[in-house]
């Protein structure tokens, strides 16, 4: 039998997956902009797949890779003190 904490975690993961797919168009547009403006060597499909593996499937390697890429490729182009970085993961 699952503990309450495990049930809460499972429910939260399902909600994250639903939100991700509900906002798929937004994520695809964002990934296309990132590719076009910042990472022509890392495609829209690459970004989207990495986000999906990180957010929906909770793949730890993908999460670490996304955090590192985001902080090295995206954060330097954001306004100072922007809250959109991933703490603790440097390039």
Plain-language structure description:
- The protein has one domain (4-75).
- It is globular.
- It has 91 residues and is mainly alpha-helical.
- The chain contains four helices and no strands.
- It starts with a helix and ends in a 17-residue tail after the last helix.
- α3 packs across α4.
- Helices cover 66% and strands 0% of the residues.
- The longest helix is centred in the first third of the chain and has 19 residues, at 4-22.
What descriptors fit this protein?
91 residues, 4 helices
One letter per element, helices H and strands E, the order comes to HHHH
**Helical run tally:** 4
Output mean pLDDT: 88
The parts where pLDDT drops under 50 for at least 5 residues are none
| Class derived from helix and strand content | mainly alpha
Kindly provide the radius of gyration, computed on alpha-carbon positions and rounded to a whole number of angstroms. 15 Å
Distance between the termini: 41 Å
Total strand segments = 0
Inertia-based shape? globular
Structural domain tally: 1
**Percent of residues in β-strands:** under 5%
Task: Report helical residue fraction.
Answer: 55-70%
Q: What can be said about the biggest beta sheet?
A: none
């Amino acid at each position: 039998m699952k503990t309450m904490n495990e049930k809460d975690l499972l429910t939260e993961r399902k909600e994250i997956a639903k939100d991700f797919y509900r906002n798929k168009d937004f994520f695809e547009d964002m990934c296309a902009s990132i590719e076009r403006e910042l990472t022509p060597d890392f495609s829209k499909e690459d970004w989207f797949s990495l986000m999906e593996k990180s957010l929906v499937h909770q793949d730890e390697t993908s999460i670490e890779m996304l955090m590192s890429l985001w902080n090295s490729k995206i954060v330097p182009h954001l306004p100072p003190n922007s809250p959109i970085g991933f703490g603790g993961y440097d390039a």
